[in-house]
């Protein structure tokens, strides 16, 4: 098989999956803090529209990305306030926001439909892109891809290797215990929700400014829902979530190749494939089949495996915490 | 007296806030809010024909909302309802294309096929939840997209129009498979209105007056306790999904034999998701879903004037609907916090006096 082709394919997977990676990592942080931001599909749409519209009007990509991050953070803030202050069901508020933000993006984005606009430029890193194989894949990309890779590393290190990250895990698992040990659960939840929301907003802008340029009806088509599923699939671990995102991205890229190779299969199979895959992976991680599969192994290996394949959500996910 | 004023303000606040948001959106795209609202009102109520069109949209909304009452009672988020509408339409289309019957016999069979189709797709979502432990939101969503893709495939390949495969839909159904109308230019007919009303009443009675309804309620409140009390939770949840799917399938049937007279990609028109909002706004109460659904149908139809008259996107109707539900939910929370603070103050008073 032509190595150049494989390298080009891997590079394109990395580029196309970058927004999904960033959104999944951002939502992982939010959910680790105990808040489900179900509005993801709507807020990514709204952020994508905002990013493109602002970049179009101001001819500044930076302003576009910043505006999108603000939008993403704002929507996440509404979910946070509704949950933390107003004790409402996060799922209900998130769902309404999904529809509301989607409609807002359609309405406000109408003047920008199918207008050609700015795009993120290519930015190869001078020396590193000469490395054989890895160079063209990781270091011959645009800034959004670099930021996506950075976000995975920083998030993973933060959650698992720092003290604040340990507190973050505590807030999501047992906020009462974290509170007793001195953590300001309320404030920290807000902070992490805002950070996660900003990342989601950035992902939206990344989509409309580097992956699928411009703005159109249903522009990000289901991206937010896939990101939410990837967080579950990733076991609330940013590294695993990123793998899930690349898996979905690979499916998208392979889809366009396979379509040419296998002419008999209707295009709609490839349209539906990401979502069918979403159900299959969730089935794999949620059903009891996995646990039964693990019992086939002796205890030491089983322990290692179940740690890697962990799927239990943060115990306090979705609940409100009354901080007296 | 102050209390009544407070309650009134609290009730009006979401409406005012929602209108404030839509007004802001209109200003942001440099359109006149007054003109937009007038156009929307005219679009929904400007003539008897237009009101009839609102009722045409009201029927599937009401059918779906009635079905969602069942799943919400069981504590389930049946987001897959869009796909269930679509599958009802798919089964109906198959029957309309393969069978050849006189109208009085054809229509009930088509309705039955729609219920079967929707019930089938609901069963898939329910099975994924009950046996695969997949959260019904993701199962439903994934199935929605799969149903959409399947519809597109059917329209562009096996059921395509002879000659031109068009994304506008299959060829029209035979006249015998069309729902009868009230005559004239009305697209509204007696069958679907009667069906929607009857279904709503039946769902209300079933949820309140049967053991099955009570068991669903128990599952919704605390599934573990219900299980320990002997409620067959898996079977009941499956029945909830199937029944809601069947009703959504009926909506798909009325859409395909009453409105479009063929299968199109937009057959569900987002009525499933909108019905979720309807039920939320109606406070999950059966008596309120009919008027709320009417209001939402009116907003839908009214907003269709915006692209025609003002070059705006018709999604403003959706913005109004979503904003309304959002602010109602938020105000609910505000009221709760204010009330609990009053309780705090009152109890501190009592402590002081003692």
Can you put this structure into words, describing what you see?
The complex is a heterodimer of chains A (324) and B (354). By secondary structure, chain A is mostly helical. Chain A has one domain: Orthogonal Bundle (ABC transporter involved in vitamin B12 uptake, BtuC), CATH 1.10.3470. Helix content of chain A is 72%, strand content 0%. Chain A has 14 helices and no strands. In chain A, helix 1 crosses helix 6 (143-161), helix 2 (40-58) crosses helix 9 and helix 10 (223-233) packs parallel to helix 12. The mean pLDDT of chain A is 86. Helix content of chain B is 76%, strand content 0%. By secondary structure, chain B is mainly α. The radius of gyration of chain B is 22 Å and the shape is globular. Chain B has a single domain (32-311), classed as ABC transporter involved in vitamin B12 uptake, BtuC (Orthogonal Bundle). The chains are: A mainly alpha (324), B mainly alpha (354). At the A-B interface, helix 4, helix 10 and helix 12 of A face helix 6, helix 11 and helix 14 of B.
CATH architecture level-2 label of chain A: Orthogonal Bundle
Annotated CATH topology of chain A: ABC transporter involved in vitamin B12 uptake, BtuC
Stretches of chain B where pLDDT is under 50 for at least 5 consecutive residues are: none
Sheet/helix structural class of chain A: mainly alpha
**Low-confidence residue ranges of chain A:** none
Total beta strands of chain B:
0
State the gist of this model.
By secondary structure, chain A is mainly α.
